[in-house]
Every structure is written in structure tokens, then in C-alpha cells.
Amino acid sequence: MDPLKLALIDTFIHKSERSANRCRELAQYTKIRLEQENPNIEGLTLERRIASLSKIKNWDLVAPQRGRPRLAVSFKAYASKGTKNVSNRLDEILGELSEMQNMHPEVISGYVMAIDLDKLGDGSIDHSESRFSDLIEKLTRVTIRNAPAWMPGTLEAFLLIGIRLSGSDSVSVEKLASYNHRGEMDFFKALSDHYKDRFEPEELEAGTESNTRIPKKPGT
User: Fold this and answer.
1) d(Cα 71, Cα 17) in Å, to the nearest integer?
2) Cis link prior to 39 (omega < 30° from 0)?
């Protein structure tokens, strides 16, 4: 079975909505895909704490280096009536991003949202598709983070997944939307490209024994 579908079955069928690690399999799937896309993304770790200006928060997937996050991805899944509040929750996520990015401006930020289309809006196909399009539009407006536009509270890339439950033990993936600052683009490639640009300079540090890579500074 497709690994993404297996991860979504675990998220929407095997885990309760209140489970603290509900999106863990989605995060593991993303970790594997990113490692396949770019083996130079070092130290990808599930559930790692990152300090921001006002608090310390657990992020679902993090690539740390020398005590600082190079990449952080947040995951959310919605499968109950009341997903009309998804936009409000998105605002919360963007606020948390802003706090982290103010303290770690070099971090690459990604967001993955999986949502049950039958619970989106009034549940009708027309309404759920309209609300899904609204979410794409709202996420696209904030997916603009790229040198030299290092605005806090914005994203490098997002992945929006629309699912429907198929009986009691299966999930069908109905819609996928993935964007970066240039427009529609594969989520994993987008994050990989940002990582290459920011942390894999063309030349290694000259004259050192370790030949350590020099991360690019924001805006350079």
C-alpha cells in the first residue's frame, strides 16, 4: 500500500483526535521522503523542542545543527465537525512560526495539513471543495518566505491533503495541494531546494582541516 495512505490511515483511523502523537506517522513519512529527496539534510528528528522568544514548543519534524534548527515542519489533522475553525488554528500556527523565526531567522519552515473533506464546511461536495480552495488561497498568501523576504510568520512550503474515509479501515486521498513561493511545486522538493540554497554553498571553507560547510546567512 502507498506509504502516504498508510500514514493517513494511522492518523485518521488508528489515532484519536486528542492523541498527542496523532501525526507521528505523517511526520515519519515526510522524514523519509525528505531524506530521499536530499540526503544532505542532516539529523532529521521527530518531535524536537525549539525555543522561541516567549516559550519552548515541540515541533513535529526538525533538522537541527549545532543546537539550532535548520528546518522545522508542523503537522495538523482535522477530522471532526467544527473544521470551520481550521482558519483560526492556522493563524495560531503562523503566530508560533513568527516567534520561532524571530529567534532563528535561518530556519526553513514547512506546514502539512490533512483534513477530512466530509467534515469541511457543511460536508457537501461543493461546499467542501470551496472551503478546500479557500484554504489553498490562504496558505498560498503566506507561503512567500525566500531570500531576501525573510518575513516572520510566513512559510517556505506547505502540503494540504484532502481525504475521505472509505469504510471503517481505509482512507482515500481526494486532493493534494503543494506550493512554495514560486507557485505550485512538490512539497519535498521545495524544502530540499531551500535547504540546498541556504545550507549547501558551492564552495567549502578554505584552509580548514574539517572542510566544514558554511551555512548561507539570511539575505545573502
Assistant:
1) 26
2) no
